[in-house]
Amino acid sequence: MKYAILNYANEHDYATGKIHPPAFAAYAQALSEAGVMVAATGLQPTRTATTVRVQDGQRSVQDGPFADTKEQLGGIYIIDVPDLDTALEWAARNPAASLAGVEVRPIIGVEVRSIVHQT
Distances from the Cα of 32 to the Cαs of 69, 77, 117, in angstroms? Predict the structure, then answer.
């Protein structure tokens, strides 16, 4: 079963060195060596985000994230493991778990490629 592990952290923690990129690299390496990592990526800071909304057929664009929160989504790991308990074990090893939070969600069983190619 595939799960997304979503890293949440305060962006200030990155700037002050509380969050160490090498720790995330080591975590990704451990996932890879265990053969459970499907994909992973980090996200640029929220100041680079753009939010799009469509209401009554009109598009509006806003610089920045949709919500102003203490913690921001900073990265995503997609893993393929037998069950939720195993996914939670991996999430507990994520460096973000000791600083802010790590969310674990099952992935919908539809490949993006199959959606994109349908007309």
Answer: 31, 11, 29
